[in-house]
Every structure is written in structure tokens, then in C-alpha cells.
Amino acid sequence: MIKHFLTTEDWSQQELSQLLADAGYLKDNPIQNHLTGKSIALLFLNPSMRTRTSFELGMQQLGGTAIVLQPGEDAWGIEFEPDTIMNGDAEEHIIEVAGVLSSYVDMIAIRAFPAFKDWQVDRLDHKIKGLAAHASVPVINMETIVHPCQELALMMTVQNHLKTVEKKKFLLTWTHHPKPLNTAVANSALLVSSKFGMDVTLLCPNKHYLLDDKYMAAAKTQCEEHGATFTVTHDIEAAYQDADFVYAKSWGALPFYGDAKAEFEQRKPYKNFIVDGQKMALTNQAKFSHCLPLRRNIKATDEVMDADYCVALEEAENRLHVQKAMMLKLMGKDLTTQNQNK
Ligand code: CP
After folding, report:
1. Is 0.85 surpassed by the pTM of this model?
2. How many CB atoms lie under 10 A from the CB of residue 85?
């Protein structure tokens, strides 16, 4: 069976910890030749700055080749629906795309944001699952309804600053934004912080901004497995109090999914959820991070972004290291064993 990286839910904490250790080694020793002759296709159905740069550069640093494709722009548009009459814009089906690319390259990565029409459909993550079903090489998630590469970069950053992370207070706070954004990074933040046994607090304006039950339930279960707590609150001060790590993200209210105008009315009163110095002062000298991109003075103030405790750039850099570790793992290159054998 092919091992993919679609979601961290399919990977144990031990496996992810090993990847983070490998990423640490790669941070100190970036240029390797373990993937000479190997290649990866990067399918971007949505824009990117960090993900594209870090994957392309990472593959180059490992001696391999990355090929970027933007279906619908510089490559044919892709149909993902099974058993459909293709009389829309898409010129080819994911069945052929997966088959052809599998015959050319050794890994395929995809960014496929949800369609923002019907959450009951989007929550099934059918685009990446369709690709994985028809590919004969490992598939990597570059953000769909979860963002597992970001999860690894976040945990690498958290571990660097907190050392032992179990039972440390991880605050995921919703923030305002002019548009209802994807819930992927928020879902992922819950998954990874709970998988590593942190005391997780989710702060959001009201019940409309709760995340999908699937991720809330997974976080609760994983926290319980570690004897840690999972707390949901709408109280800003209580949430920030004694936090060890503050993570911010904006996302759209799921009950208003597909109706950006109605959703905007919901979020209007909550500009006060911005991360600012006053809120950070309530924490246990917490570090602050965000996956980026971030609108300054909407999600976090200049004061926070420019503070020594802001580690968002470190998290972005860590994308490079963790993705290299992941590509090596999927290609069967056990970096740690190789290093130990030296
Ligand atoms: N955080 C992140 O995935 O950034 P990009 O959207 O720029 O790739």
C-alpha cells in the first residue's frame, strides 16, 4: 500500500516526531543528495508563496526536480467528479492526470482549496482523495481542508521554544478578516497541538465559529489520551490567561458557508479579536505565530508582528525543513538511520 501524506490523522505521534527530528537535522545540514534522479509534480489549484517556494527549493536541495503545474492556467483544467459528463471547463479527468503524472514523477503534491459552496461536500476532501485513489506514487497535501505540512512546521516551532510541549497551554484564536477563509489551518492546529498532548484552547466569537465536529472531536479525544484538556471559550481574557503559545487564524463560520455576504455580517462585531500587545501581556510570556499570509492590523497588530515573541517567520522557514523530511520519508530514505550509521 502506498503511504501518502494527506492528513496527520493517518500518522502516529511517533512517526511525526521522527519527521521533526529529521527536519531538525536538515535545518543544520540543508544540502543533501538523497533524492538525485527523483522528481515531484506540484499541482497548485490555488495561489501560494511559501508552499511553492519551499517545495521547489527543498526538492532542489535534496538533489531532485520539482515541476510546478497550475491546472486551468498553465496546464489543463481538471475534473474531479467521478462518473460525470465532462461538458464544463475542465479538459481532463483526475483519473488520467494521476495516471500520467505517476508515470513521470515519484511524488505528486496538490493544493486544492474547498469550493466554498457546500461544506457537506467540501468536508469530504474529494479532490485529494481522488488524486490519491488514482495515483501509483505518494501524494502530499499542500492544503485542502487541512494543511498537514503547516502542522509539522508549527509543531517544530512550538517544540523549539517550549521544549516539552505536553500540558502546555496552546491557544488557537480566531481573528477578524474581510473574507471568510478556509478552516484548514485551524483544523490542523487543533489536530497537531492535541496529538502532541498540549492543553488546547479554542477561542472564537460564538458557536457559529466552532470548527467541524470531526476536528473538534479528534482534538478532544487526542487531548484526553494524553491527560490534557480541550477547552472551547468565547471569553478573550480567559483564553489568553497563562497561554504558553498563541496561534491566530481567521476562518469562515460554517453555518454561513457559501454565503460570504451573510457571513460578513456575522463577523462584523468581532474586530476586537485582533491579537494585540494587551492580550499577549496576559500570557505566560507566550510566543505568537501565524501560518502567513497575514493582514497586519486586522489579524495582529504591528506591535505583535514586530515583537521578539513573534515566531511566524521561523514557522515559515520550518516549512522547508519539514517538507524535505517528509519527501525523504515517502521516498524510503531514512535520514536518521543513515546519520546514525555514519
Ligand atoms: N502558509 C502557507 O501555506 O502559505 P502560502 O499560501 O503562501 O503557500
Report:
1. yes
2. 7
Instruction: Output the ligand 1 site: residues, CB below 6 A.
Output: 48-51, 143, 150, 291-293
Supply the pLDDT for residue 336: 63
Taking CA atoms only, the protein residue closest to ligand 1 atom 3 is 51
Q: Which residues of 167-176 are buried (b: 16+ CB within 10 A; e: fewer)?
A: ebbbbbbbbb
Q: Which of 43, 45, 50, 52 to mutate to test the pocket of ligand 1 (most atoms within 8 A of CB)?
A: 50
**What is the 3-state secondary structure of 54-89?**
HHHHHHHHCCCEEEEECECCCECCEECCCCCCCCCC
Domain annotation for the chain: domains and CATH numbers? 8-146+320-331 (3.40.50.1370), 150-315 (3.40.50.1370)
Q: Give the model confidence (pLDDT) of 223-236 as tens digits.
A: 999 999 999 999 99
> pLDDT class for 338, splitting at 50, 70, 90?
low
| pLDDT band, very low/low/confident/very high, at 341 (cuts 50, 70, 90) | very low
